[in-house]
Design a protein that fits this description.
By secondary structure, this protein is mainly α. Helix content is 38%, strand content 1%. It is elongated and about 115 Å long. It starts with 27 loop residues before the first helix and ends in a 9-residue tail after the last helix. Bound molecules: heme C (HEC) (2 copies).
């Protein structure tokens, strides 16, 4: 018998059919079980299956982590660093999200093996992507930055990591950051270590302090004794070898106006005081971690007449950084004009323009002139015309490429002595030193990984030479 919903049996208009009684076919139990089944099928396909079947071979650039770096990796995970820092770069990041000069797009095989996997891909980029961080800064920079990121960048929002300074943890974290970027990263780190060796030897500084320092150590001082260049060599020649020589004698293209100087002072106060100090004397709060310490800009003599303090030299250092020192590159963060403006301002500091409420004026600007020693040197030795960058034939050997990256002012034929009077500085000796450091670090990481029983790719992966991203 047919009934409608209300059970009424009203007469239907002619030709109409009564609606069948509705009945639930799926019970809540069936709906629940079915829903869960659908959910777990999706999870199995999207999560479980890839984790257990996606096993790409190690990429050409892959390198294992040393034991110390592996401990640092755990600290990186425990301290939530991945919340603000991603660990992989996509093609679009090469332009947007990285401030490294030689960016590299991550490959699946970069995360091979159990020490890199599950990889620390991270969730967002509040700070820069760190997959290519290795070798970008020296260890002393990293230590000072972990102690207080505001020492290096007064505008940084990264939390400080002072709690890691009570034992060796900070050094483990530094090793992870310096070793995580594969073979190309190790090569860059080797370039950084080699440059540090050259800078310290040349300027007569000891190694930077290690481990727990607080911020209370005195700033390291140079040992001036016995460190004089051979009399036939320009004193600043080794420093100049880290600046592309097309910049050596160039002037500042901007006029010395009050506006330009004011903007230069603003940039200096925003970006540079953590290291170079509020007085410009190189004694900022970060300085006690650094060797060599930051440059002192208060000497009028240096401003007018230094062998490597021309406006072009300053510009190049700020644009690209100074490998081997904590001086970092601002080329991705400051506009070209702002760099030239801060260069103008630096040359007013000896006249007290960093004082409170002091407006720097054009009369404070100290004009730089090349000394006759510098002019004689570029005529007879490191001639401007021999700038390696003018020669567009590219070096193919990765160790030579790295040597030319950290010593852009050296031409292949140049050879000079460091201020200890004996150590040679040339592209050849730098490439050999960088290669030795790179091989040593790679061999030790492989030996550590083997001893830990890690899954390793064939030995040929280790012996294949590294590449320099951006140079192939
Ligand atoms: C709240 C977000 C945040 C957290 C958490 C964080 N960082 Fe950062 N980090 C940043 C920002 C922003 C910067 C860029 C400014 C600066 O250099 O301090 C940065 C910069 C860095 C740099 C320098 C990059 C470069 O070459 O200039 C390193 C290395 C770094 N962080 C490592 C770490 C490590 C290791 C941890 C965990 C112990 C960590 N960060 C935790 C936000 C964060
Ligand atoms: C993280 C610390 C740090 C920060 C931040 C920093 N510097 Fe430096 N700077 C150094 C160190 C260290 C040196 C190397 C000094 C040496 O070896 O004599 C240096 C060297 C320089 C030199 C070369 C000086 C010379 O005599 O050749 C210039 C120019 C310079 N810095 C400008 C700046 C400017 C401008 C800023 C801000 C936009 C800045 N620095 C930010 C640490 C820093």
């Amino acid at each position: 018998m047919e009934r409608d919903e209300r059970g009424d049996r009203e007469p239907l208009p002619r030709g109409w059919v009564r609606h069948p009684t509705e009945r639930m076919l799926i019970t809540p139990l069936v709906a629940g079980v079915g829903g869960l089944l659908a959910f777990f099928t999706v999870v199995a396909i999207v999560v479980w299956l890839p984790i257990h079947t996606f096993d790409p071979p190690a990429s050409e650039d892959w390198a294992p982590l040393s034991n110390t770096a592996l401990k640092g990796r755990n600290l990186f995970a425990q301290n939530g660093c991945y919340v603000c820092h991603s660990g992989y770069s996509r093609p679009q990041d090469v332009r947007e999200a990285l401030y490294f000069l030689y960016p590299k797009v991550s490959q699946p095989g970069d995360f091979y093996g159990s020490d890199q996997s599950p990889n620390l891909l991270g969730t967002e980029r509040t700070g820069p992507d760190l997959s290519q961080e290795s070798g970008w800064h020296p260890n002393d920079w990293q230590r000072a930055h972990f102690y207080d990121p505001r020492f290096m960048d007064p505008m940084s929002l990264m939390p400080d990591m002072k709690s890691l300074f009570s034992d060796k943890q900070v050094d483990e974290l530094v090793m992870f950051v310096e070793e995580r970027s594969g073979k190309s990263g190790l090569l860059r780190y080797a370039g950084q270590l080699y440059s540090k060796h050259v800078v310290l030897l040349n300027q007569g500084f000891p190694e930077a302090y290690k481990g727990f320092q607080g911020a209370h150590k005195p700033i390291v001082e140079a040992n001036e004794k016995g460190l004089k260049p051979p009399s036939t060599q320009l004193e600043e020649a080794p420093n100049l070898s880290q600046i592309d020589r097309s910049y050596w004698l160039s002037g500042d293209p901007l006029p010395v106006t009050e506006q330009n100087l004011m903007r230069g002072k603003e940039v200096f106060l925003q970006r540079c005081v953590g290291c170079h100090g509020l007085k410009g004397n190189g004694k900022g709060p970060g300085a006690s971690f650094l060797s060599p310490p930051p440059a002192d800009f208060t000497s009028a003599d240096d401003a007018c007449c230094g062998g490597d303090t021309g406006p072009g030299d300053f510009y190049y250092r700020i644009l690209r950084g100074w490998p081997g020192t904590a001086m970092e590159n601002f080329g991705e963060r400051l506009s070209v004009d702002d760099i030239w403006r801060v260069v103008l301002f630096l040359k007013t500091i000896p006249n007290g323009t960093l004082a409170h409420y002091r407006v720097p004026e054009p009369k404070d600007y100290i004009v730089w002139q090349p000394t006759k020693e510098l002019k004689a040197w570029v005529k007879t030795h490191q001639q401007l015309a021999n700038n390696a960058d003018f020669d567009k034939r590219m070096a193919k050997d990765p160790y030579v490429q790295e040597a030319m990256r950290v010593f852009p002012g050296l031409a292949p034929g140049d050879s000079m002595r460091l201020n200890d009077g004996t150590t040679e500085l040339s592209i050849r000796s730098a490439a050999a030193g960088i290669k030795a450091l790179y091989m040593d670090m790679l061999n030790r990481a492989w030996a550590d990984a083997k001893a830990r029983g890690e899954k390793l790719p064939p030995e040929t992966n280790k012996t294949a030479p590294p590449t320099v991203p951006g140079q192939q």
